[in-house]
Design a protein that fits this description.
Layout: H1 2-29, H2 35-61, E1 67-74, E2 81-89, E3 92-98, H3 101-108, E4 112-119, E5 123-134, E6 140-151, E7 156-165, E8 170-177
Parallel strand pairs: 1-7
Antiparallel strand pairs: 1-4, 2-3, 2-5, 5-6, 7-8
Length: about 180
C-alpha cells in the first residue's frame, strides 16, 4: 500500500513538472508580454501547482477512511500557562510540542493548532493528552485528559481543550470529538 502511494506521489510530481515546463515554455514564447508580467504569471502558476500538489499528497497519505486529526485550543489562560503537550493514541506517542511565548499568546487570542494528523484503522481507540505548564501562583502543573472513541470509515477529528473554570479557579482539560 505504501509503495503504491509513493509511486502515485512520484507520478504526480512528474506530471506537475511536465505541466510546469510546458507552461513555462508557452509563457516564454509570448514575446508581447513584458518580463515583469511573465514572472508574475509564473509565480501564480507555481503557487497554484504547489497548492494542488499539497492537496493531492494529503489525499494520498491520509485517506478519509483512516484519517484522524487532533487540534489544540486554549481558553483565556488566566489559571494555566501552557508550556508543552504530549499526545498518545493507543499508548503510542504520536506528537509532542513545546510552546514559545508567542505561540501561547496566539492560542489565547483564539488560534487553534493542528497538533497531529495520521491514519488509524476502524475500531475502538483511546487518545490521551498530557499538558504541562504553570497554574495560579506559578505552580507547575502536569495534567492529563483521555477519550475513548470509535473510528469508523469517516475521517475523525478530535480537539484538545484547555479551559479556565471560573467556579473553581482551576484549569480544565478535555478531549472532545467533533461531529
Amino acid at each position: 500500500m505504501e509503495n503504491i502511494s509513493m509511486k502515485r506521489i512520484g507520478q504526480a510530481v512528474v506530471a506537475t513538472i511536465l505541466l510546469f515546463t510546458a507552461s513555462l515554455f508557452s509563457t516564454l514564447q509570448a514575446e508581447e508580454q513584458p518580463l515583469g508580467d511573465k514572472v508574475e504569471s509564473l509565480k501564480e502558476q507555481v503557487v497554484k501547482l504547489n497548492r494542488d500538489l499539497f492537496i493531492l499528497e494529503e489525499d494520498l497519505l491520509f485517506p478519509a477512511t483512516t484519517q484522524v486529526t487532533v487540534y489544540l485550543s486554549v481558553d483565556t489562560g488566566k489559571f494555566f500557562k501552557l508550556d508543552s503537550v504530549e499526545l498518545k493514541i493507543d499508548d503510542d506517542r504520536v506528537a509532542g510540542y513545546l510552546y514559545t511565548e508567542r505561540q501561547v499568546n496566539a492560542l489565547h487570542r483564539g488560534g487553534i493548532q493542528r497538533l497531529y494528523i495520521g491514519n488509524l484503522k476502524a475500531g475502538k481507540h483511546e487518545v490521551t493528552a498530557f499538558f504541562t505548564g504553570f497554574g495560579p501562583d506559578g505552580r507547575e502543573y502536569r495534567r492529563g485528559a483521555t477519550l475513548a472513541f470509535d473510528k469508523g470509515t469517516d475521517a475523525k477529528v478530535l480537539e484538545l481543550q484547555v479551559r479556565d473554570e471560573t467556579d473553581t479557579y482551576q484549569p480544565d482539560f478535555k478531549v472532545v470529538e467533533w461531529q
